[in-house]
Design goal:
Elements (H helix, E strand, L loop, with lengths): L3 E6 L3 E7 L4 E5 L2 H11 L6 E5 L6 H9 L4 E4 L1 H10 L7 H12 L10 H27 L4 H31 L1 H10 L7 H10 L8 H8 L4 E5 L2 E6 L5 H16 L5 H12 L4 H22 L13
Parallel strand pairs: 1-4, 4-5
Antiparallel strand pairs: 1-2, 2-3, 6-7
């Protein structure tokens, strides 16, 4: 039986549970507390350590565990909550949450541990997203601003543009610094329409890419239509859940590749065929995004570049 560990993260401390032993303990989130965490978990030799994203408070613990060579990953909070409900758990304490995480990590087909290079790339990609959100907000404010406020917003927008360029350079450096990430990024970029930004974002936010089948990866990202049927009632299928940030990255890339000439003829042909069949534009674009994701997954899984792909035969 696998030995797994769950960590419930808060600002001041970590509640830790070991499954199936059932032992629990608590450590502070200070450097000394994280050292104690490593000292207590190394003898346990867990197969997997799971925690949830908690406003960034988990990052120091994840980095420290990875430095010690322990397999740790940040679990999808929605899946953990659904798992807890499925187990009939209604009570909620930090210690119980840690045990639920430990039991959740013991289930098969959980996300593989993220290595240090991918975790560093994820942090940079997250920072880029934060800067982009600030740009959008400041541009909206600038529309109606006048006088000093307008000048201040212009100065801030110029600063944000500089920071975005710096983060973009840091992302490129992070990919180049790791041979595995660099090889994967180069392979993904052989697909017409996939830029370095798209490849870096997908590698950072979807470390499972290349290890899953096409249905699983589509469901994980949330581009697989969910059928709604009960008795004689049948509603339209729609996409929901999944990793929205990857969808938000794939959607504009798919739009450019499928709607513009001479970008990706294969994807464009598929889009035009769906439109000719009467599919709405957005439905056709999501279907194309699913195809693109399937291709990227198959390329990493089978070690193939785009020219080598037999698209019609992707399993």
């Amino acid at each position: 039986m696998r030995t797994t560990v769950g960590m419930d993260v808060s600002k001041g401390w970590l509640d830790v549970a070991v499954w199936p032993a059932g032992t629990t303990f608590q450590v502070a989130t200070t450097p000394a507390g994280l050292d104690e965490l490593v000292e207590r978990l190394v003898p346990v030799a867990p197969d997997l350590i799971a925690c949830e994203s908690t406003g960034g408070y988990e990052q120091a613990a994840v980095a420290r565990l990875q430095l010690a060579g322990l397999p740790v990953y940040v679990a999808d909070g929605a899946r953990v909550r659904s798992y807890a409900k499925g187990q009939g758990r209604r009570a909620k304490t930090d210690r119980l949450d840690a045990m639920i995480l430990a039991r959740f990590a013991s289930e098969p087909e959980q996300q593989p541990p993220r290595d240090g290079a991918t975790a560093a790339l994820r942090e940079l990609v997250d920072r880029r997203s934060e800067l982009q959100r600030m740009v959008v907000a400041e541009r909206a404010r600038r529309t109606h601003a006048t006088g000093y406020v307008a000048d201040d917003l212009d100065a801030h927008l110029a600063w944000l543009a500089d920071r975005l360029k710096a983060v973009d350079r840091a992302i490129q450096d992070a990919v180049r610094a790791d041979a595995t990430l660099q090889a994967k990024a180069r392979r993904l970029m052989t697909v017409p329409g996939v830029s370095w930004g798209v490849s870096a974002t997908v590698l950072a936010l979807l470390p499972e890419l290349g290890t899953l089948d096409r249905r699983h990866v589509a469901s994980l990202v949330g581009v697989a239509p969910q059928t709604q049927q009960s008795g004689k009632q049948r509603a339209h299928a729609f996409i929901s859940g999944g990793r929205a940030r990857i969808r938000h990255t794939l959607y504009p890339a798919t739009m450019a590749a499928s709607c513009r000439r001479n970008v990706n003829p294969v994807l464009r042909q598929h889009y035009q065929r769906l439109r000719a069949a009467g599919k709405p534009a957005k439905v056709a674009l999501i279907a194309c995004a699913r195809h693109l994701l399937t291709w990227l997954n198959a390329m990493l899984r089978d070690d193939l570049d785009w020219p080598q792909m037999q698209v019609a035969q992707i399993p």
